[in-house]
Every structure is written in C-alpha cells, then in structure tokens.
UniProtKB/TrEMBL annotation:
SUPFAM superfamilies: GAF domain-like, Winged helix' DNA-binding domain
Residues covered by the HTH iclR-type domain: 1-54
Protein name as catalogued: Transcriptional regulator
A Pfam cross-reference name: HTH_IclR
Listed InterPro entries: GAF-like_dom_sf, HTH_MetabolicPath_Reg, Tscrpt_reg_IclR_C, Tscrpt_reg_IclR_N, WH-like_DNA-bd_sf, WH_DNA-bd_sf
Top-level taxon of the source organism: Bacteria
Domain IclR-ED: 48-237
Length: 237
C-alpha cells in the first residue's frame, strides 16, 4: 500500500529506486512488490517508470461503494432512533427484490425474514411498493417468476387481485400491509425516486401498535425528503 501511495503521488510515474526510498523499504523488497503489483494490474511499467494500473480503479470503486453503504446505514440508524421503529431499505435490481439494509434495536426488532423476501414480494410492503413502481410488463414478469401464494391468512390470494391493487396504488403514497407477510406485524413502505432507480424505505410495528404506523411513516417521508435535499444520497448501490 505504501508503494501504491508513492506511485500515486507521481502523476508521470517514478522509478523503482525512488519509490523504494519514499516507501521506506529495501530496494530488493520494493522490486519484488512492484513486480507483483504490476502482474496483478495495480501498476504499469512504462519506459522504466511505474504508474497506477487499471486495477486501482476497482479499489476506488469499492471504497465508494463502502462509503455509500455506510451513508445508508448511518441514515437508517438515525431514522430508527428518531422515529423509534425498525427501518428497511430495499431496491429492485436485475429483476429481483434486494433488501439492502435493515436497522433495528432489541426494543424495536425488525421482522424476521422467515420466507425469502425475493420470492414473497406480493406479501410484504417492501415488495408491493417496489412492484408498484414497475410497468405492467415488468410486474407480470416478476409474478411469473415468483407466483403469488398464501403466506398468512391475510395474504393477497392471487396475481390478478394483486395487479389490480398495484394499479390503484398512489404513485408517491405509502403502501400499507397488515399481517400479510408476518402475523402480528403491520408495515408501511414509501417509494424512493432517484433517477431511474426503483427503491423503497419501509418501517414496521407490532399490529397492536398500528396507530403508530401512519404517523411514523409520515415522519419518515419528511426525514427522507430532508436528506435528499441536503446530501448527495446515492442509492445506486
């Protein structure tokens, strides 16, 4: 890493002897590591000088990805503590529902994923909210691959009924689900609009505390709006 940093400090590259001196290591050790880094694509040798290679870009992209994940996780934790409910973030990517992150506490635990979220999108608020943002063709394609099936006595019973419900879902409003995925739990999800991405934030509360659900999701909407106005919040994760 010290060698990479040394190379990175020279826009036009530097020779091995200079890099070894700047990295504070014996020249034979530096030569060995420089050869290895070059072989792995992290460096290139051009006319006796070492410059950064293409593989370094993957490190930078990985760091950016970690930074975005940390920003999302920190935001979820903030909303969890502010609102007092578990908070979920999910996206629809490559034809599948992906639960990216969940923030909860022992006092306000998240719903157990006892049935795969990807296969049961028809039954939970997260999936219904994501599906409501798709066009009709993509919805049908998803349901062809993950057919509607009962999860609890309250789950929507067939694909036709679900599609009719999704067509009437308000584009920017919350999607409410009552014990369709997990008995004893009610959930609400809000659509997140950021370019062409399809994403959602959601919360859940025990069914005997249902009166908390709508005030909590309204507050989440306000909090999310403030974040988008104040931060470069990326959901391309």
């Amino acid at each position: 890493m010290r060698l990479l940093e040394a190379v990175g400090s020279h826009a036009d590259g530097a020779p091995a002897k200079q890099l070894a001196r700047e990295a504070g290591m014996p020249l034979p050790t530096a030569y060995h590591l420089l050869r290895t880094l070059t072989y792995e694509g992290y460096l290139r040798r051009e006319q006796g000088l070492f410059v950064l290679g293409d593989a370094v870009g993957r490190l930078a992209r990985g760091e950016a990805l970690q930074n975005r994940r940390s920003k999302i996780e920190n935001s979820l934790a903030h909303w969890r503590d502010t609102i007092g409910v578990p908070v979920y973030f999910a996206v629809y990517r490559d034809g599948e529902i992906e639960l990216v992150s969940v923030s909860d506490t022992p006092a306000a635990p998240a719903v157990d994923e006892w049935a795969d979220f990807r296969e049961t999108g028809h039954a939970h608020a997260i999936g219904q909210c994501l599906l409501s943002q798709l066009d009709e063709r993509d919805r049908r394609d998803h349901l062809d691959r993950h057919p509607v099936q009962p999860i609890t006595p309250y789950t929507v019973r067939d694909g036709r009924t679900l599609l009719a419900r999704l067509r009437t879902t308000e584009r920017t409003g919350p999607v409410i689900e009552r014990q369709e995925y997990a008995l004893g739990t009610v959930c609400a999800a809000i659509p997140i609009s950021a370019g062409s991405a399809v994403a959602t934030m959601a919360i859940s509360v025990p069914s005997h505390q249902e009166q908390r659900l709508l005030p909590a999701v309204d507050r989440l909407r306000r909090e999310v709006g403030q974040l988008f106005n104040s931060l470069a919040f990326s959901i391309s994760i």
